[in-house]
Each structure stands twice: as structure tokens, then as C-alpha cells.
Amino acid sequence: MSLEIIEVTKRFGQTTAVDHLTLTVPEGEMFGLLGANGAGKTTTFRMILGLLLPTEGVIRWQGEPIDDSKSHLIGYLPEERGLYPKLNVQEQLLYLGRLRGMKKTDLLPEIDRWLERFHIRDYANKRVEELSKGNQQKIQFIAAVLHRPKLLILDEPFSGLDPVNVELLKEAVLDLKRNGTTIVFSSHRMEHVEELCEHVCILRRGRAVVAGALRELKRSFGKQILIIQGDGPFEQLARFPGVLQWKRTAEGVRLQIANEETAQAILGHIAGKFAVRLFALEEPSLNDIFIEKVGAAYE
Amino acid sequence: MNKFFLVAVHTYQTKLKAKAFLVTTAITCLLIIGVANIQPIIEFFTGDEKPHVAVIDRTGSLYGPLAKQANHNQIALTKITDMENEAKEAVKEGKWDGLLVLSMDAKGLPEAVYYANTIVDNQTPEELERALSQLKTALSAAKLGLTDEQMAELSKPVPFQKVALEKNAKTEEELNQARALVYVLLFAMYMFVLMYGGMIATEVATEKSSRVMEILVSSVPPVQQLFGKIIGVALVSLTQFFVFFAVAFAALKTSGQEVWRFLGLDHLPASIFVYALVFFLLGYLLYAVLFAVLGSLVSRVEDVQPAITPVMMLVVAAFMIAMFGLNAPESAFVTGASFVPFFAPMLMFLRIGLVSVPGWEVALCLALLAATIALLIYFGAKVYRGGVLMYGRMNIFKDIKQAIQLTKK
């Protein structure tokens, strides 16, 4: 039982927003959808929600198509904030929660619990337009999860939040996952996806260029990252056999190398030439994979 | 269904609590109270000053009866013996509001000249003229030696009755009452659509511009949302109307005027009220759906006005034709137009109220109207669902096309 996206294509007239996309999100997993702006993330989300119908292909949740009768099972946090600016926080959450099929008596303690958790209980009677952007985002998040959805879709959930609040929200997301919620989310921040998701998919012009379990992806990526900090000079390392990429950092260099043997050779080469403060071999980051596959930096 | 009520109640409550709504309602209530008490208010400002008019009576016999009449009409007359020129000076100085010079013509009938600084005030001279005319009639009658009965006979109007030969045609009395009722209801329909149609469109556009719509469409089917809004606003309007009526009733009661008389609708068949209700509801529904759909197409509240103007024009056109139709309900133009769904709520009701319309025509008209509404709801829900996902500059026809495309595969 899971979310299945099978051979889905969405065309708007001449343009193809999503092109033969196939994804499976196992139940209870967290799935990261990455892609540059315009890659088709939001369109994919809208199709999952049933706001748009796929031109071809099917989307199924637990074996059935998603329609209005399932709205109480699904939570959605849109990329743009979508709240009534004039309503106060409590009324707002009550209304949106009831629209997802919850009873008022069940909602009130739940709202209280979430506001408490996000340290914004004092704002319960304030109008949303009076709140800061970050606090609005928290309200938006609560609105998406208030009805304990089975499937949660988060479109850029961490945008506009300071690091403290990002942690707060991350914790909440992880809690939901522990309770069995299937979560699909997109983020600008690679490290968030890396930290939270087991499975990822990188979209490029509507096509999935990379998809699968994150650990597998990293292993099969082959290349590794070598970080050296020291006095230098590092310039000659750029032409060292086995070095694929060379990038200067504040205190040294960051190299992408073909394999572990290259690292050994480099260590032998620089030993005794200058002072080395750090010499570390790392797994490739998602960002490395992304840049390799999409051909450009994400941001 | 549950969600439909949620949307309706939500719309109702938020609208009712909105400051703008409360202010408009309060201002309108004040206006109503003002209009109901217009007499006392005017009197308050003008005081109880009667116009004081000086009279130079050259006949010696007219002043007495005239003063009696004038006193009735709230004009204070004072007989003076000054010369005419002196009296005119006195008027200029403001001692008198006017000067009336009475004399007899060659035939021994009254004649008068009225002097005042300006003759802007029509009321006083008119009252005086009327009083004098009555005196003159009495004098002439006395001269001719007519009795009171003969006088009464002379001034009696000709009995003139209009009788309709057609079996179902309305009697004159019915027709007058029907015309009054039709007029009142047409006007109510017109006001209702203009006032609350815009409210629906704005309501939808506001939700869209705050992007809350994206969450709404993912939790409530668009048709339920559409109807929730429409019913919610209808409830708001009913509440507002109820407040207006209550205030008007109370104001008229307390001001102690006898204006509160019903139109005397006892001669009208009950069916016309049923028709009124049916056409009113269908008309509201038709326009409300149109307004809601137009509201879903624009991205900003500022764009609502230009988007709904064409529909507003349609309502105004329907009302204009109806006003023309009040006096010519049988003209081919009105008959034809009464089958056009956008005009039907007003025009077919007008025809039913004033002439006898064959049953099949009414049935056809209702069927056309219902079909149009069903069609509008069907397309409306599609446009609505797609429209709320579109942002950007607007071009109505292109937008409708694009919105429908968005709901397709």
C-alpha cells in the first residue's frame, strides 16, 4: 500500500509539464521531490491532490484513485501561503480542519496542542495578517496536519523560517512520519531532503532524472568527495589524475574524485609539501548528485 | 453536503462580522430612519414659521372668506390699509413675506396680484390661487343662482370604467395592484442582484487572491463550494433586508405616520406570489453562479469590478426592458425577451403578473431558465476549479478557455 504515480504525463496545450513520471512512495516513508523552478514539482503535487487531472497515466493512493471523497486523508501545504488574512488563528484552523472532516470538539484540543508545540499559543486570537511570515508558515503547517492525514504533501515547507523554527518543523515532520504518515515534500534546501528522506526524485523538465533510495543513489554515484584544509598551494591538484572537480573553499579545497585510490595518491603527493589540518573523504552529497544530473546548481 | 453547510455558514459569519458590512448596514438604517421622519426633520429646520402675507383688499368683501381658507393652509394673512407702494417697500424690507392685492374685474369676479421679493417659493402663491379659485367658483355660482346640488352635479367626474372581455384578463383593480406588486418585486430583484452579486464575486476573488483557495479546492468539491458561497451570501442579504424592514417598520411606527399601509393585495391570486418567489430564486441563482464564476477568474480583488461589469449591464438591461414592459406587457418585444434566460426572471414574471400567459409558455420559460442554470453550474464548476489555479493578467474569454482546459486531462 503506497502512493503510486505510474507513467504520468501532464500537458498544457503545447508545453509538457510532467513527462512520463513513474514514482512509488512506500507507506510511512518520507519522499523528497527535487527540481529547479519549473521542473514540474507543483504540477505533480496538484495531480496527486486531484486538483489537476493527468493527461496520461494514473495516480493511486492505496490502490485507488484520489478524489474528493479522500480529502480527509490528505494534508497539503502549498508553496504560497494560503490563509484568510482577516480571520484569527483559531477560527482559521477550526474552519480548515472542519472542511477536512474533523469535528469541532476534536479540533479544539488539537489546535491547542499544536500552537503550544510551536510556541505560538499567544497568537490564537490574532488575525493572521498580524503575524510574522514565519509564524504564518507555522499556521499553514498546522492547517495541513491538523486532521492527522495519512498522506501529507509539503511544497517548500521550510521557506521563510529561521533555523530555530526549521528545527521545530523538522521535528514535527519526523514525528508525523513515526506515526505512520506518508510524506512527500519538496525543498530548496538539499540538506533538508538529505536529512529527512529515504527516497528522492530529481525532476528536470518534467522528467525524473534520478529516482530511488538515497543511500543507493549515493553508493552508485561512485565518485567521492575529498576535503583538504591546509596552507596549499592546491592549484596543481586540479590536474591530478582522478580528480574530476576542483573547488576552492575558505580554508582549502573540495575535490570530487573518481575513487578511493585517488585519495591515497593525493595524500602521498602532498605529504610533507605543506601543513595539512584536515584530510577527509566524504560521501557525495545530494547537491553533488543534483549538480551532476541537472547540470546546474539548484539555487 | 456537510461541507456545503460549513462553507455557507462560514461565508455568512465572516461577512456579517466584517466592518464594512456593519458600517453599510448602519448607514442605510440611518437613512431609512431619516426618510421615515423627513417631515419632522424639515419642520425642525424651517421652524413653524408660516409665511406672512399682507393683503390689500380693494373689493372689501373677499378678505374675510379668503383668510378663513388661508388659515387652513398654514398661511397667515393680515389685512392692511397702506398704499400699495408703501406695502411693496415693506415687503422689500422683509416686514412681510408677500403682498396680495385683491380686486374685482369688470364682471365682478375676483382678480389678484401677488408681490414678493422673489417668486422662487411656489407654494404660497399656489395655495392662495387655489383658495381664490374656490371663492370665484362660489361667487359665479351665486351670481348664476345655482343651488348646491347643481354645483355638485357640475363638478362631478364622468364615470368611466374599463372592462376586459378576455376571460382570464385581469380587472382594472387587479391590474393596478398587480402593477404595483410587479414593480416592487422587479425593483427588489434588481437591487438584490446588483448589491449581492458583486459581493459573491468579491468573496471568491478574495479567497483566491489570499491563495487559501488552493487548500479549499483540495478539501471541498467545487460545486459544494460554489453553492456554499451563494447560499451564504443569500443568507447575509436576507439578514440585511430583515434589519432594514425592521428598522423601517419601527421608524414609521414611532414617527406616528399613517404611511404604513399595505398595498391592498387582497385582489391578487395567491399564485402570483408563488411565481414571484420562483422567479426571484431562479433569477438570483442564475446571476449568482455567473458572478461566482467571474470572481474565480480574476486574481486580484481590484479586477473584480471590470470583470463583472458586463453581467451588471445585463441586469440593468433586463430592468430597463421590464420598466418599458410595465406599460406594454403585451408587446412582441417583451414577449420575445421574456424567453431569454437572462431576462426571464423579470420579464416572464412581469407578464404573468399583468396579462394572462398560456401555461405552456410559462413552462417553456421555466424549463429554459432551469436548463441555463444547470448548464452554467456545470461549466461554472469546471471554470471555477480551473480558474482558481490561474494567476496573472486577465482576459475573460481566454481565461474561461484556459480554466476549462485546466480541468481536462
UniProtKB/TrEMBL annotation, chain A:
Residues 3-230 form the ABC transporter domain. InterPro entries: AAA+_ATPase, ABC_transporter-like_ATP-bd, ABC_transporter-like_CS, ABC_transporter_ATP-binding, DrrA1/2-like_C, P-loop_NTPase. Keywords: ATP-binding, Nucleotide-binding, Transport. PROSITE patterns: ABC_TRANSPORTER_1 (PS00211), ABC_TRANSPORTER_2 (PS50893). SUPFAM superfamilies: P-loop containing nucleoside triphosphate hydrolases. Pfam families: ABC_tran, DrrA1-3_C. One of its GO terms (molecular function) is ATP hydrolysis activity. PANTHER family: ABC TRANSPORTER ATP-BINDING PROTEIN, ABC TRANSPORTER ATP-BINDING PROTEIN NATA. Belongs to the ABC transporter superfamily. This is ATP-binding cassette domain-containing protein. It comes from Geobacillus stearothermophilus (Bacillus stearothermophilus). The lineage of its organism: Bacteria, Bacillati, Bacillota, Bacilli, Bacillales.
